[in-house]
Amino acid sequence: MRWKRFVASVLYALNGIRLAVCHERNMRIHLVATVAVIVAAAMFRISKMEWLVLLLTIGAVMSLEIVNSAIERAVDLVTDEYRPLAKEAKDLAAGAVLVFAFISVIIGLSIFLPYLYVFFKNSLHFHK
Ligand SMILES: Nc1ncnc2c1ncn2[C@@H]1O[C@H](COP(=O)(O)OP(=O)(O)OP(=O)(O)O)[C@@H](O)[C@H]1O
């Protein structure tokens, strides 16, 4: 049945997320950073548009990390010997994650720096 195949494919995808969280150190780092960013966003009451940009960024970083892990496994499946093409495939995939991680830092700073500025300015006024 069609819906059974759909449910099975969702379960396989969830297993992929579980694998990434359980076996990939970088994925766990992303998760911790995500929790910190969501707590900060809720504290500062960022705007709806900022939430959307933030969620898009978080989703993109995590998705890229999962694809990177998939490429690493596919390469390891093909060879466990040193191969220049294997190195290129893994380095390219890691490069894709790094590009977006760098962009996400810029996005995070652009969203949070103005709030941090106001927060510290107000707390300085409060202590005067
Ligand atoms: N079969 C291979 N042939 C050539 N170079 C490889 C091969 N496997 C890995 N490498 C090189 O070693 C690096 C580290 O590979 P590894 O498989 O440990 O993944 P990783 O980048 O450390 O990922 P993670 O930290 O998420 O496990 C790769 O980025 C690549 O440059």
UniProtKB/TrEMBL annotation:
User: Which PROSITE patterns does the annotation name?
Assistant: DAGK_PROKAR
Q: What membrane topology was assigned to this protein in its record? A: Multi-pass membrane protein
EC annotation from Swiss-Prot or TrEMBL: 2.7.1.66
In the record, what terms sit under GO molecular function? ATP binding; di-trans, poly-cis-undecaprenol kinase activity; metal ion binding
Q: What class of enzyme is it?
A: transferase
Binding residues annotated for ATP, in chain numbering: R5, Y12, E24, E72, K90, D91
Residues that bind substrate, according to the entry? R5, E65
Extract one GO cellular component term from the record: plasma membrane
Q: Which co-factor is required?
A: Mg(2+)
Q: Where in the cell is it found?
A: Cell membrane
Where in the sequence is the active site?
E65
Keyword set, alphabetical order? ATP-binding, Cell membrane, Kinase, Lipid biosynthesis, Lipid metabolism, Magnesium, Membrane, Metal-binding, Nucleotide-binding, Phospholipid biosynthesis, Phospholipid metabolism, Transferase, Transmembrane, Transmembrane helix
Q: Which Gene3D superfamilies match?
A: 1.10.287.3610
Q: Does the entry feature the keyword Ribosomal protein, yes or no?
A: no
The name this protein goes by in its record: Undecaprenol kinase
